[in-house]
Amino acid sequence: MNDQGDKPLLKVDGVSVRFGGILALDGVSFSVAPGQICGLIGPNGAGKSTLFNCLSRIYECGGGSIAFEGQPLSRLPRHRMAALGIGRTFQNLALFRTMTVTENILVGCHSRYHAGFLRTMLSLPGTRKVEDFAATRADELLDFLDLRGVADRVVADLPFGTQKRVELGRALAARPKLLLLDEPACGLNHQELESLGELIRAVRDRFGVTVLLVEHHMSLVMGISDKVVVLNFGRKIAEGTPAAVRQHPEVIQAYLGGEHAQPA
Ligand code: ADP
Ligand code: MG
Does the reported pTM lie above 0.70? Predict the structure, then answer.
């Protein structure tokens, strides 16, 4: 799992984004190989969310380009992101709060597979089999994410940590090739935090998904990432294994005196 071997799944090439007088991203380049877990870290205001928003086409890049499986993202409409194989979770959750856990996950299945498309693909006569297909996928995810016991509960009634697993389930239901996780540790209790790293690795191994992880929680990022990209003031200041990045002088400098202290 390195950049030399496989063709990258994601290639970020000289990406710049300007907001008025602020250069939020300044020529950022890196790539992520299939199956990698890539951590994206940096102090507040470094440009992490901006990059994430470029990847999900919420913002357009002012300069540079992003390619997914060799295809420039800028040529693809935003609503095609899920169908293309890019899924994401949000820092502040984005679930259908009055729907059940199962229903939320089923929405994820359908965000990728429209009935018409699936019917054609599977050469099936009606929508019935499509529903079966989605239900099987949802079933698998309920077990995998330990949500079986709350499958029929309304999402709004569940603890935050459980809701976050539902959101992960919904993202996975669309069978993404690339999963963008936006601060998945945010708001979790200590116990949930402990198991999150294991869960993210298990997701990668089980579903063969590539993960790009924005996270403030250093020990989580350093513990599970194959490689880490560090941004500061919109520029990439380091990229490498967690061990290498942790010792990088510019990284230590960037975090000195910052609210998150040094990368542990
Ligand atoms: P991070 O997620 O690493 O904390 P951001 O990507 O949110 O950083 O922000 C990078 C810089 O861009 C910051 O200076 C921020 O204030 C600015 N910025 C981000 N989004 C906007 C926006 N929509 N309008 C104006 N400035 C923005
Ligand atoms: Mg941010």
Answer: yes
